[in-house]
């Protein structure tokens, strides 16, 4: 879920299609909506001197888009050798099976139901296809199976829906859990401090050049929303829908169903920590 809020860092055109870093190129899927912003960012990632590429999130089942991803890689002299998924939502993974047919690649994901080829992804795994080095990070919260991929050579991290290029994301209760999500944001912040990550390559929206600022924004935003939800409950708003109408009054009502998922996650979190009865 998004709002109109701009995140810290200079947005760059790479997330609207084209090169974003020395190793990452974006192909924008034609599925814009209030939930997907400009559309899903499909990422082609490769070492500059390698003829092999990895694709992160082939996107929805849209034949033209999938063919465009293949042709974009081929135009750069790359053969797609592996497909990775940040999580299982259809706007990221819906085209994965067809994309595997087009490219002859395996699909690696945390969720076994999404894998094609047997090999999955686990915390601490390092993908080294074509000399590339992508470190797998467990970042549940948006969904239980959410992953991020750290690209050390470019000081970048592919965040899927954990951090977007614009606005904020939904904690998709009941699968998504706020406690997990906050832990994941802290994990990403540590990456900006300890590993020098500067750039966010998101699943939707523009590239961000201030990764630490973006994660800090998310942490502050979540703390404010949680406090607002707690206050709303103390003021007598009990149901999730009542809390949404009160707390998310500044958000387009078309996004309220998604907001309700986040509110349910917030109410669960507050209850687990004894902050509400």
TrEMBL record:
Q: Which SMART domains match?
A: Lactamase_B
The superkingdom listed in its UniProt entry is: Bacteria
Boundaries of each Metallo-beta-lactamase domain copy? Answer: 39-204
Task: Identify the Gene3D superfamilies for this entry.
Answer: Ribonuclease Z/Hydroxyacylglutathione hydrolase-like (3.60.15.10), Winged helix-like DNA-binding domain superfamily/Winged helix DNA-binding domain (1.10.10.10)
Q: What is this protein called?
A: MBL fold metallo-hydrolase
Give a single Pfam family match.
WHD_BLACT
Q: Which CDD domains match?
A: metallo-hydrolase-like_MBL-fold
InterPro entries linked to this entry: LACTB2_WH, Metallo-B-lactamas, RibonucZ/Hydroxyglut_hydro, Sec-metab_biosynth-thioest, WH-like_DNA-bd_sf
């Amino acid at each position: 879920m998004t709002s109109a809020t701009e995140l810290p860092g200079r947005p760059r055109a790479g997330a609207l299609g084209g090169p974003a870093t020395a190793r990452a190129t974006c192909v924008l899927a034609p599925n814009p909506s209030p939930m997907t912003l400009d559309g899903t960012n499909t990422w082609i990632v490769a070492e500059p001197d390698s003829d092999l590429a990895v694709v992160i999130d082939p996107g929805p089942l849209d034949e033209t888009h999938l063919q465009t991803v293949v042709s974009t890689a081929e135009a750069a002299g790359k053969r797609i050798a592996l497909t990775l998924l940040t999580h299982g939502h259809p706007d990221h993974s819906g085209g994965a099976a067809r994309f595997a047919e087009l490219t002859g690649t395996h699909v690696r994901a945390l969720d076994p139901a999404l894998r094609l080829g047997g090999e999955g992804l686990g915390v601490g795994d390092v993908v080294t296809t074509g000399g590339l080095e992508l470190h797998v990070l467990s970042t549940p919260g948006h969904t239980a199976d959410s992953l991020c991929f750290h690209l050390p050579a470019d000081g970048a991290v592919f965040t899927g829906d954990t951090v977007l290029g614009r606005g904020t994301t939904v904690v998709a209760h009941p699968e998504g859990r706020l406690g997990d999500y906050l832990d994941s944001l802290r994990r990403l912040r540590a990456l900006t401090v300890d590993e020098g990550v500067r750039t966010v390559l998101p699943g939707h929206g523009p590239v961000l050049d201030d990764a630490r600022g973006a994660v800090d924004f998310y942490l502050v935003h979540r703390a404010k929303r949680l406090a607002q939800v707690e206050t709303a409950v103390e003021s007598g708003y009990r149901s999730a829908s009542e809390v949404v109408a009160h707390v998310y009054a500044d958000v387009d009502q078309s996004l309220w169903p998604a907001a309700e998922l986040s509110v349910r996650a917030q109410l669960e979190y507050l209850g687990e920590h004894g902050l509400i009865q």
